[in-house]
Design a protein that fits this description.
With 532 residues, the chain is of the alpha/beta class. 18% of the residues lie in helices and 30% in strands. It contains seven helices and 31 strands. The protein starts with a helix and ends with a strand.
Length: 532
Amino acid sequence: MNMALFKAFVRSWLLVLLGLPFSCQEDGQENSLAVALSASECTGSAGSIMLTITTQGDWEVNVSDSWLLPETSKGRGDAAVKLIVAVNRSASERSAIVTVKGKKSSEEFVVKQQGALFTITPSTITFPEVASPRTLSIVSTQGWKVRNAVDASWCQFSQTEGTGDAVITLTPAPLVDKSTPRGPVEIVIESGSLSKRLSLKQEFSIVSTYHEEGEVVVVRQGTVANPIKIAVLGDGFTREDYKHGGAFDQAIGKMMDGFFNAEPFKTYAKYFSVYKVVAYSNERGATIEKDVTTGGKPPKQTRDTRFKALLRGGSSAHVSTLNDTVFAWAERVPGFKKDRDGIFVLVNVDAWAGVTTSWTSGRFIARTCYDANVVGRMLHEGGGHGFGRLKDEYIDHETTIPDSIKNVINTRQANGWWQYAGNVDLTGNLDQVHWKHYFTLTGYSRVNLVEGSCLYRYGAWRPESLSIMEKSSYLYFNAPSREAIVRRVLDRVGEIFNFNDFLAKDSNVLPTQASTTRGVWAPEVLAEPEEL
């Protein structure tokens, strides 16, 4: 053997001898496989578990069911693989087999997932007649939804859908109509493929579908001692209109809600209690002497009504009733005092008509027809003429106010300008007018002397360019008018008026349709109040 071959032979054996231990160690680590699972059981909610793989070789993860999916299914060397767990929408437990394969070995695990959890507590809620809110507890591992809350429209759910646990508040609406039962209603609450049923009802004694004739119904209760009472009567409403929640209830609700949404009655609402007095008429509507040319333009007609409402018709806004009969029915209100309290009569006919009859003793009857402007006209009649003893600010005569009217105003204002016609000045003098105390107040720049009031173009002044006493659809009493009303209201309940307190509470905000230009308004035909 020559030297070259010998050296090659030796070199080969050395490589073999040196390489054998190293090759055996590397192959052993590639073949080894260790796998650990962070959890073998999970809840029915969506989530994840971790798979820890220890090896230097290749590996592959397979799962037998699609609700459990590996973020990575293949790799080499050590790894942490997240297994994504889908929500279990079934009540049944399920399982999946996780297999991890290495080069020469594999490991297998069983992962179990609990069924979806869904409970409601309680399953029955019964409200008493005088009800407070109740709570419903929901425990869920997934999303849920109340499917048919509309079937219990009398009950408000604080939440009708969500995910996971929740506490829902159920609040019944005020019990106004006792002629219709409230439940039992089965409310279905669903969570995935699961559903629960909540039985819901309110217990109370069912009463007649109709308000009974002569019945007195509380609409609003004042919170001060001895509040002013307003008796609200309807004329031209038949028995059918007096169903609970029917035409009469809706009409009175609209009128009185609007009335107490206007200042100053909104701020001083606690000084008033309101009562509906049920009086059936044999026929709907009112007697009309000739075809009406305003509002819904009802034709000449004769109707048999409880208080014998009578419209002159044409363009006249005058409407009258049998006053003695009206007073007799108003006095059905417990404790009603006709010289202290007030009477509102709503005539069931679509016409632009309304008038207030007042007496020097303090009593009054304010009437309005039921047209689109029913709120504004009752504010003008009952709020302005009735409680405020204000005068009209619109103009019917292009002449100077007669001395006879001026004498009446001066005489009745002798004990306080606010007692009568507090929105009328007869001096035309900024230094003498009885509302001059507003001229230096911040925020009351609209208060001034504007000639034209009390139906006459000249010789009488009003405080501001526009107010509800000029245009009944303009839901705004000027500042001196608000003060006069508040003074008279407090006087009736025996409280002392304080101007600083009044200013602190006063809302001197124009309505949304406000304009400082009087010319935007078309002339309004209203009936002059009757004073007896």
